């Protein structure tokens, strides 16, 4: 008969003290959805200028091609940030709030071109900001 001995020193690491948070998992998933929406916005802006219904093809100071690149880059970054949030990275939470605010302001400017999509995305950005700021600082996704 063999005896198994555990060689645990009894100390707990910081990783075991972190609590799992459903809010952060939700926030990471939501950031990835918003990022995917922004990638779609960017691709439409780049490849199909006639899709949006604005008379002079300008929103604020940019044309749809510039907005397309803006949404495409923002969406790709938000996809990466969403993966970072799910992985439990603190930097991703901070950057996620920053890019959610940037996306909400961008969609506010884009409201005239695509109102329903923009209102939906602004609402999701507000929910994302709450989901990222509500859990404790040591919580993990």
TrEMBL record:
The chain crosses the membrane at residues 21-47, 67-87, 94-110, 116-133. Keywords: Membrane, Transmembrane, Transmembrane helix. Residues 23-135 form the DUF7144 domain. InterPro entries: DUF7144 (IPR055568). It comes from the Bacteria. This is DUF7144 domain-containing protein. It comes from Actinomadura napierensis.
């Amino acid at each position: 008969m063999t005896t198994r001995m555990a060689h645990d020193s009894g100390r707990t690491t910081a990783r075991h003290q972190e609590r799992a948070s459903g809010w952060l998992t939700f926030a990471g998933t939501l950031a990835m959805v918003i990022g995917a929406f922004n990638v779609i916005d960017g691709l439409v802006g780049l490849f199909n200028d006639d899709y949006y219904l604005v008379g002079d093809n300008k929103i604020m100071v940019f044309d749809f091609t510039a907005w397309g690149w803006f949404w495409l880059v923002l969406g790709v970054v938000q996809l990466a940030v969403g993966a970072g949030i799910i992985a439990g990275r603190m930097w991703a939470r901070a950057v996620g709030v920053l890019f959610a605010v940037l996306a909400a302001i961008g969609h506010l400017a884009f409201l005239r071109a695509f109102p329903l999509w923009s209102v939906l995305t602004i609402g999701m950005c507000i929910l994302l900001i709450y989901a990222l700021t509500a859990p404790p600082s040591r919580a993990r996704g």
